[in-house]
Amino acid sequence: MAISWYPGHMHKTGKELRKLMTATDAVIEVLDARIPAAGANPLLAEIAAGKPALKLLNKSDLADPGATADWHQHLNTLPHCRCLVLGLDKQDVLASVLRLLDQLTAEVQPVLGIRKQCVIFGIPNVGKSTVMNALAGRKLAQTGNEPAVTKGQQRIRLNQSWTLIDTPGMLWPKLADQDAALRLAMTGSIRQTAIDIEEIGWLAAEYLQSALPEVLRQRYELEESPGDTEALLSAIARQTGGINRRGDTDYGKVAQTLLNDYRSGKLGNHTLELPPAGTD
What structural domains does the chain harbor? Predict the structure, then answer.
């Protein structure tokens, strides 16, 4: 089964973004610090081509600190780009964002008007609504652990110079790189009803068994690391109540447990991808 999710409202969002770009001075892209490459929407990059960009590495509290530092360094080397790392504490995010936006637009002249406009975007469930609330200093946007929480555009005035426009989370029509699509699914950027949870759980278990065998053993109190993916899922099921009444492994239930544990950081701070080699 190919992993994909591109409902109609995302197509509408793309059309609206194209219209916004003519009057936009800079863009803010919110990225999940665990998947900065897989979570960078190529369609958004095409729409915002040439605009100064501020990349926010959000959810860094769930990512490996060393990998996040490498991504921060890499993104800061891109033309007309700045990067800011965000975790749970977003108390001073507004001042940092305004400072970096001013730096970026000072590099690209002329500014389109006296007041400046930036657009914030990202893939679904990247934490953009939480960032918006922090920037506004009050609850503007509903937050949640399911993608597609934001439904329409919102405008807020950040200060005397900047207006920020929020847009719904958006993927792209065809996820050609299915390894990247798996990373999107593992972090919760694809709506649960659009994927085969058992298949995603199996693929996630296969990856985590290779990358974090000792973490899995300790988290689920396994006596030894199982030899294959089926044995791993069955062992986790026995430890987490994932056995059905017939005594068989409930692969849907254990898949959900495994994905929830990764998404919430119960398997530790783990980044799913590293910056391109030789870019520091």
Answer: 8-166 (3.40.50.300), 196-263 (1.10.1580.10)
